[in-house]
Amino acid sequence: MPTYKVDERDVQFNLFEYLNIGALSEYERFKDYNEEVYKMVVTEALKFAKNELDPLYVSGDREQCQINDGVVSAPKGYLEAYKKMGENGFIGIDTPVTYGGQGLPVAMATAVGEFMIGANVAFSLYSGLTRGSSYLIENFGTEELAKRYCEKMYNGTWTGTMCLTEPQAGTAVGEVKTVAKLNDDGTYNVVGNKLFITGGDHNLTENIIHLVLARVEGDAPGTKGLSLFIIPKVWVNDDGSLGDSNDVNCVNIEHKMGIKASATCTLNFGENGKCRGYLLGEQTKGMRLMFKLMNEARLMTGMQGMAIAGSAYENSLTFAKERIQGGDTAIVEYPDVRRNLTLSRAFAEGMRALLYYTGKCIDLSEAHPDEEQREYYLNRVDLLTPICKAYCTDVGFKVTELAIQIHGGYGYCSEYPVEQHMRDVKIASLYEGTNGVQAMDLMGRKLALKNGQLFREYYEEVTKFATQHEGHATLSTEIASLKKAMDTVAQVAMKIAEWGMGGDKEKCLMSATPFLELCGHATLGYLLLDQAVLAAKTIADGKDEAFYRNKVRTAKFFAYHIMPGVQMRAKEILSEDMSAMEMEY
Amino acid sequence: MPTYKVDERDVQFNLFEYLNIGALSEYERFKDYNEEVYKMVVTEALKFAKNELDPLYVSGDREQCQINDGVVSAPKGYLEAYKKMGENGFIGIDTPVTYGGQGLPVAMATAVGEFMIGANVAFSLYSGLTRGSSYLIENFGTEELAKRYCEKMYNGTWTGTMCLTEPQAGTAVGEVKTVAKLNDDGTYNVVGNKLFITGGDHNLTENIIHLVLARVEGDAPGTKGLSLFIIPKVWVNDDGSLGDSNDVNCVNIEHKMGIKASATCTLNFGENGKCRGYLLGEQTKGMRLMFKLMNEARLMTGMQGMAIAGSAYENSLTFAKERIQGGDTAIVEYPDVRRNLTLSRAFAEGMRALLYYTGKCIDLSEAHPDEEQREYYLNRVDLLTPICKAYCTDVGFKVTELAIQIHGGYGYCSEYPVEQHMRDVKIASLYEGTNGVQAMDLMGRKLALKNGQLFREYYEEVTKFATQHEGHATLSTEIASLKKAMDTVAQVAMKIAEWGMGGDKEKCLMSATPFLELCGHATLGYLLLDQAVLAAKTIADGKDEAFYRNKVRTAKFFAYHIMPGVQMRAKEILSEDMSAMEMEY
Q: N or C: which end of chain B has fewer CB within 10 A?
């Protein structure tokens, strides 16, 4: 039974009306593309997600990954689907065409990603990490290495992973103990154990290319001594042919609450002293590279929150329209159900707006001819990345909770997909840096970066929007609330900066999570209202009227039911209460 | 590995310091008991929960209930543990001694329930529903029926169920289609299908006593035509011996997200025309009886939120103290982790305060010699029941979410119990009336009952407390916030009443869920501050100082980090925004 549902109309609205990505063709980088091409890709990607990935969603969860004698197998059908995915070019959507990427805008990759993840998140982790690691090799590896590895990764012949975590080094990545030693031939011998490695082993492809964080013998302790290595599961000869097994062994897979079709592995590198790899980029500069990969991975993780929530919401809506209770009334008519549905919808559309917008900012930060503009958009991406990751995964989880609630008792049963949605999405708040780590990144790093420029630019943009539309015919009250919310955000940010400068680190850290939440509320409020202003204008055309009217209603709903959370969290922070630090635990 | 953890000290504080239940012995009903007896029961119950139920918690989840050829089997060890539970008298803790109950206060049953549920919620459903159905037979059945059934239910020989839901009749219970027809011998022939029946079939006991909602042929449609029937799985002869199978067949068990060791059954009654039962209470008065059972079941469900959250919190605390990250610092020292821990703690202690207090109110509503006082406490129970059910299950779920977060990636893995806590507790927001139904009960029924008397009395009590302690040495600011929060609650309640009288039903219904949430916040704020005032007084004794200081800190934390939610939800309601109703779904 098909379970994946998505509001394709809203995807189109984001890409082609709100973000108008067709206009990106004015930049050199995207000159060969146009709206027509993009629309075709959207159609094909959605078809692929529905026809190839959705059918494996539930079965993959039930069957799970298995490990027998150190050999990991993915559920039935995954091998064939992965092959097709590579053949269809869906792995490197937004990477350069040089080694087989499609060279499309990141905004487009976000749409394609929404479909793939929404239809089957566990599956999409194999391709997502492959794209990420391949792109890193492409960017920082020698041409020779790039040629040898990237094409086969983009076309689905091999997959890739990122190996950071070790038993003692989770959030504290600087504690990595894996060591590397230079060999005479320029390769490195690597020894160490890695934990929680997504797609660390499986039978989808003949080879797996690991990017491994390790320390060259003698390098400094902590993160500043770490380097990054390319370590294939099976050695790749200089001519690209496969050599011997490279002494990378999977000793365990985790039994998890969800994403059960994704193999989460414990890997031993070099337990027989025969694991070799190549240094990627410069020695001791591993974290810098890893951060690039991690930032992309964080956006992909945010997309998991958004994509799963989108499908959970659409599934709830279908259920609510079909489920009759009390005579012949469908439950969609009941106000409390409508409130839950509209909460879900507002979050789902808000997250889509945020992630697609951030995708376009990445495109502009790379493709815009004006350097100042590129910096402006890069600043925006830097600022929004932790919000995309943490807010979208927390709120995405909340939407799955609401989806179960809307389904009533049925929501708890496996015959409906929403309980799996909840189990699957929960991981997203934990990996790629827990949401607490994201909050600290926003509060401790992004807020202070360039003397607060990132935040200032953002504040000015939102304020400009609010001023420009303060007399709006139908949305003036809601826009005034946004203005007030944004001022509150600024007030709190100033206060935190003041604590920071005063050395009151604990007060800053205590504020991190509520600060990220209030930034998230304000950001979604801004984007939804911005979209609503566009929608209100478009209603007059008379075409697709219900869609545009609903866009306006969704933004209004967000303003009254969710945005007051900004003031609440501000109140919490400004109370300066430190009872939690005083607790005798 | 033991997974159950509970703050026994806080249980003792609630029972013997805050509620001082030893003093209940001044009432006739509890004259044979005293604090010493109660303390012994607490010790024994906790021992039983830890030794007998906790070891089956994880294994029961993995093994699940199975159905083969219509025969349902519970996981290994459940049969033996259930037998012991009956022998130890833990099933009818608070029911009269007449047929084998222990006659203890409901407040005590709440503590015992916390342990049993916290250690193994799936298991405790078998005993919880048995107590409920047996107590109903004891209260409303003939002496003969009570004698025949209750003793064996309280001593663990038989279990009991409540059978309301049918495929078309979930929340809309009036749609029940099961029919009953009077036989010449005074029994009724019953035919119908019931869905989602907890403990509907299993191999724990030789018989299962179903309380079944059905309609006598010819009676009115809707809820007012429903009657309640005692239908044993195996017929019970007049002498108490077992007769033939009674044509009750289990045709399916649900595959669920959690509580997998609890059999959730689809039952066919009388598919061969041979299912007989006894009318319980009066014909067409079934809903009245069912409501009594449901109210108790709602409190038990609220206890699931509280008990599971209590263990999830304690597990997180243990983890946070043991988990080293970044040198030699345990993560419990990190402010963001402390915030999550203290949020969990504040909710967990607040829920305990609420449910134990409500338990004592039930005791006073039944045992107090003064009729006015009995009514006063009954009013309080009526008002708080939907809050206990919905708020504690939503917030209990939230605590399990925080627990997973505190565990990081480990929280997602089955080797730690918190992911099971989350899966198990989710059901509690759905059954016994979804939380949306509870919100409507509070807003639509309880608020208006006796012209608002329930609410008025409660408002006066909280306000009196706030006034009495407005000059408190260490808690005056927080108590002032509580006063303000309670005034906001009153203001919102008045507004809803105004809408109700004006016939604006949709606006009332749209406010139901946020109204319940704000009442919950205010209620926990009140009880935690009331406890903190007592704790602040006790600190001076110098004994157990850390415990009392922490009680004060927990209440402060709640006031600054959670209570602002009252104003936020009020703002939402008072916006009168009806976008959700306008949405074209």
A: N
